[in-house]
Specification:
The protein has 102 residues and is an alpha+beta fold. The protein is 27% helix and 15% strand.
C-alpha cells in the first residue's frame, strides 16, 4: 500500500468555508474557489511563499475532502504531499503542485 497523500489547503479559505457553513442568517456568501494560488504560492504558481506555518496558513485534507471541495467550489491548484508540510520533499524552492489532479 502506498503512502497517503495530504492535499494542502489554505487556512484562510477553510475559515471562510466554515463561516459560510455556520451562518444561520443565510446572508453569508459561499467561500468561492479554493485560493491556494493566491494564499500559499508565489506568482510563479509553483513555489510556496516563505514563512508559511501549518495550521495558521495551511492545513492538510485527505483526497476525498479535496475532491469534494473541487467539485463544489473549484480553485486550487492541488498541492499533494506525504506529510502536512508545504515544504516537504522539496528539491530547491518548489512545491509539489499537481495541475489537474483528480
Amino acid at each position: 500500500m502506498g503512502q497517503e497523500r495530504w492535499y494542502i489547503i489554505s487556512s484562510a479559505w477553510l475559515d471562510r468555508w466554515r463561516y459560510y457553513l455556520d451562518d444561520t442568517s443565510g446572508l453569508v456568501e459561499p467561500p468561492g474557489p479554493v485560493s491556494n494560488a493566491s494564499d500559499l504560492l508565489q506568482p510563479d504558481g509553483l513555489t510556496p511563499r516563505s514563512g508559511l506555518a501549518k495550521q495558521k496558513d495551511y492545513r492538510g485534507v485527505v483526497k476525498e475532502v479535496w475532491d469534494f471541495f473541487m467539485q463544489h467550489y473549484g480553485g486550487g491548484p492541488a498541492i499533494a504531499k506525504t506529510a502536512i508540510d508545504i515544504y516537504e520533499g522539496q528539491e530547491g524552492p518548489r512545491a509539489n503542485v499537481l495541475a489537474g489532479v483528480k
